[in-house]
UniProtKB/TrEMBL annotation:
It comes from the Bacteria. Residues 1-18 form the signal peptide. This is DUF2145 domain-containing protein. It holds the Pfam family DUF2145. It comes from Maricaulis maris. InterPro entries: UCP028477 (IPR014547). Keywords: Signal.
Amino acid sequence: MFRLIACCLFFLTLPAPAHGDSDARPVDHFTLREAADFSKQVERELAERGAYIALVFRSGRPRDDLPDGVRYTHAAFWVYGPVTEFDGSQGHGYAVYNLYHGQADPTRSYLAQDWPLDFMRGDAVGEVGVIIPSEAMQIRLLDVLASDQYDNLHQPAYSLLSNPSDLRYQNCTEFMLDVIAAAAWLTDDRTRIKINLDAYFAPTLVRLGWWQRLTAGWFDPRIRLDDQASGPVEIASFTSIADFMLAFELAEESFEIQAGFGE
């Protein structure tokens, strides 16, 4: 059985802190039918490209609300395999697994499974980013996700803007990156993974003023910056993960899909 994980990343809206998109709650901008059509559109695209695993990113906030260089707020591994339909019959399709921060305690994360429709109901822009791992990486990712390494790679301490080279916190895109690193370097030793990422992964930089650094946590307990050095805040994002995977031949391609609502 494929054990697949995804994670949810909420970003700081500049110049003021943002609340981020919620845990897979519907966005009013699109109807349920539009979200369903978009999810099927993405599934068809992934299947046509022969992707057993794909990294899919969507934004729960308008692009104008996101920092420069950040296009998406949520990332998930989508895996193709057997699924049970609503009528109990067996078919094949993509399942989506997520890492979210808690509602009662937003500084702790938990793992949850949902489906492409749930994923798209959180979309606010009608566009997703996709990374297709190389064939070898898809096999390695399946091996990692089906093993006990899954639990070893999860750090429940949650930060909205976690540093991908630091052990203290994790959010969805950092967890995704850790899983990729574990598959690439054949280890679930998080200390070793962080050392390697610090050497080879170029993070996305989010620039915060001194006042934003000082006060961000007052407005949102998910924003913890003690894992960040002075200077720009370092995070993992669609762009930086895609660049990393393509540079080291861990991915075949990255691209974006726009919703064809009017087609």
